[in-house]
């Protein structure tokens, strides 16, 4: 998942380009077990949940560089993922993977 929204861009018709938040939800089913890494980078705040537990909490009003999360995952197990993002003013950027 990767989203980049410039200062004048509109991410959805009729929606504001500043002062908004968005939530992405889904599931991940690893094809291989072992150590799996996630990363986030955002301008402004971002939170990543695995299951119902917060894994990355970077809910700040500044551009943050990469934050890395590593965990041991079981093959073929279904993991619930939730990414929350908020934009204050200016460029809206959120990247996760």
Describe the structure.
This protein is mainly beta. The chain has one domain (2-96): Jelly Rolls. Helix content is 0%, strand content 61%. It contains no helices and 8 strands. It has a 4-stranded antiparallel β-sheet with strand order 1-8-3-6, with no helix packed on it. Strands 2-7-4-5 form a 4-stranded antiparallel β-sheet, with no helix packed on it. A hairpin with a 2-residue loop joins strand 4 and strand 5. The relative contact order is 0.39. The mean pLDDT is 79.
CATH homologous superfamily descriptor: Galactose-binding domain-like
Beta-strand segment tally = 8
Q: Count up the helices.
A: 0
Output mean pLDDT: 79
* Strand content bin: over 45%
Helix coverage percent: under 10%
Unreliable runs: none
- CATH architecture assignment name: Sandwich
CATH topology: Jelly Rolls
Set out the fold topology.
Blueprint: E1 2-5, E2 20-28, E3 34-43, E4 45-50, E5 53-58, E6 64-73, E7 79-87, E8 92-96
Antiparallel strand pairs: 1-8, 2-7, 3-6, 3-8, 4-5, 4-7
List keywords for this structure.
Jelly Rolls, four-stranded antiparallel β-sheet, 97 residues, elongated, single chain, mainly beta
């Amino acid at each position: 998942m990767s989203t980049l929204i410039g200062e004048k861009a509109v991410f959805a018709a009729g929606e504001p380009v500043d002062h908004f938040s968005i939530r992405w939800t889904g599931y991940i089913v690893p094809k291989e077990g072992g150590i799996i890494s996630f990363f986030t980078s955002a301008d402004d705040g971002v939170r990543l949940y695995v299951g119902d537990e917060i894994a990355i909490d970077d809910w700040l009003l500044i551009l943050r560089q990469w934050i890395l999360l590593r965990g041991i995952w079981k093959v073929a197990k279904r993991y619930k993922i939730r990414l929350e993002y908020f934009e204050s003013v200016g460029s809206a950027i959120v990247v996760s993977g």
